[in-house]
Amino acid sequence: MNGSVNTLALLPEGILTLAGVLVMLAEPILKPGTSRKPLGWLAIIATVLAGVASGYQLHLYNLHGTMRAFSDSIQIDPFSVFFHLLIAAVVFVTLLGSLDYFEGKATHAGEYFALVLFGAVGMMLMTCSVELLMVFVGLEISSISTYIMAGFRKGKATGTEASIKYFLLGSFATAFFLYGIALAFGATGSTSIAAIAGALGASATPRLAFLALAMIIIGLGFKVSAAPFQVWTPDVYQGAPAPVVGLMSTAPKAAAFAVLLRITFFGFASMEARWSVLMWAIAALSMTIGNLGALKQKNVKRMLAYSSIAHAGYLIAAFTAFPENGIAAACFYTAAYSAMNVGAFAVITQLSGYEEHTRTIEDFTGAALRRPWLGALMTFFLLSMIGIPFTGGFFAKFYVFSAAISGGHTGLAVVGLLNSGVACFYYLRLLVAMYARHPHELGNDRAVFTKVSVPASCGLAAAALGTLVLGILPGRFVKLANRGSLAVMTIAKPAAADTPVETGVNTAPK
């Protein structure tokens, strides 16, 4: 029984791992110069199967309740399933947009598909782990994959710079996270999130515990590119391939936020009065630095890098709300941001190509006139980032700011609204350039547009549909986010040390 439960608990991760290994084994068998698209299709099929497996896990939860595995270090509930499905969707869109990206340009495309799958394994493992050492393992699997992918355009100096900078700063951030785990163990005697919550709730909170949480926030703050830990973001986004940026700006952030939600709202819930002040400051700083930094950017990827810092601030504002509102709002915002951001970078991938002929806002001048439907999609995604009604971005911001206000932080909501107004300028500046004048009027011959393939079109359509549905029919997603909110606050207690460890399905009433 234990073995079957353990297998079901990590079924999505197992599928992706197996597919990644098969891709790595098949890569050297293929002749040099031949297409690596079959490996990409294998990765896409595996991602779909992983999503189906996550849906099956939700079905099991509806029948039996919370599923616990591997000595209560893994927990499957609506919260973990929500992020599993989100990560699978982001990876699916990324792979569809990448099938032709490396075609004829790089003989190592198979390695890219495998790294995407392995990275997704680490991200999913992070979201379902309720033991900090397991979270660390998932974080490392995800980080190593993204470090390599950031420099995947091996012939580009900016790609190498991006990879090295991301690796070095990421290593420091990981060290902070690991030291935080060690201090948490010293303060509570355990690295289980549930045990930490029990230890801190039963006695006076030691100062060592707050230091542990602060170091954990620093480590995860780097992963979500929140200020003041955002210095790596613009350079890495500029140097990394566009589809990789679309992936690393969404899925790893979603996993990191999932971990942060579990740790703060459950593990360190007794210290909320302290860490909510810290989150308030980080949210306000991220929103302000991100939007002000984006104002003066001419490179589109750098502009969107600062935009991602600002959106991290909007999302962190949900951490200042009451748990039942804040967790659900953060989950929904993560989904909406992932849909519109991965869609925006999918459009950039199609307009720029492997060589990235269109880099600056001036290079995008007239792009929508030459490629109307790509221009329309980019417009839709950018309007969603602004927060225009009938888009996922509008409802996400409304949900987050409402949660912050309900938690008594009206001032932070005002800061967010003012920053949203500032963001309109640089988003609309790009839109005006895309529609204003034809490239030939400026003598701009750098824009080289290729035909969009059917898989890439499907990926773009999926991202646009997700952004639209989250804006006009958010009910089902809000319901799942609310169920995930309850799951975070009711993490299963680990078995006592003097009793046999129970690993199985919790059939207690939901």
Overview in brief:
The protein has about 500 residues and is mainly alpha-helical.
Which descriptors apply to this entry?
510 residues, mainly alpha, two-stranded antiparallel sheet, 21 helices, 72% helix, globular, disordered C terminus
Q: Mind explaining what this structure looks like?
A:
- The chain has 510 residues and is an all-alpha fold.
- The protein has one domain (2-488).
- It has helices at residues 2-9, 11-26, 37-64, 78-98, 109-128, 132-150, 157-188, 193-202, 207-223, 233-239, 242-248, 251-267, 272-295, 300-316, 323-352, 367-370, 372-386, 392-406, 410-436, 454-472, 475-488, and strands at 67-69, 74-76.
- It has a two-stranded antiparallel sheet with strand order 1-2.
Architecture blueprint of SSEs:
Blueprint: H1 2-9, H2 11-26, H3 37-64, E1 67-69, E2 74-76, H4 78-98, H5 109-128, H6 132-150, H7 157-188, H8 193-202, H9 207-223, H10 233-239, H11 242-248, H12 251-267, H13 272-295, H14 300-316, H15 323-352, H16 367-370, H17 372-386, H18 392-406, H19 410-436, H20 454-472, H21 475-488
Antiparallel strand pairs: 1-2
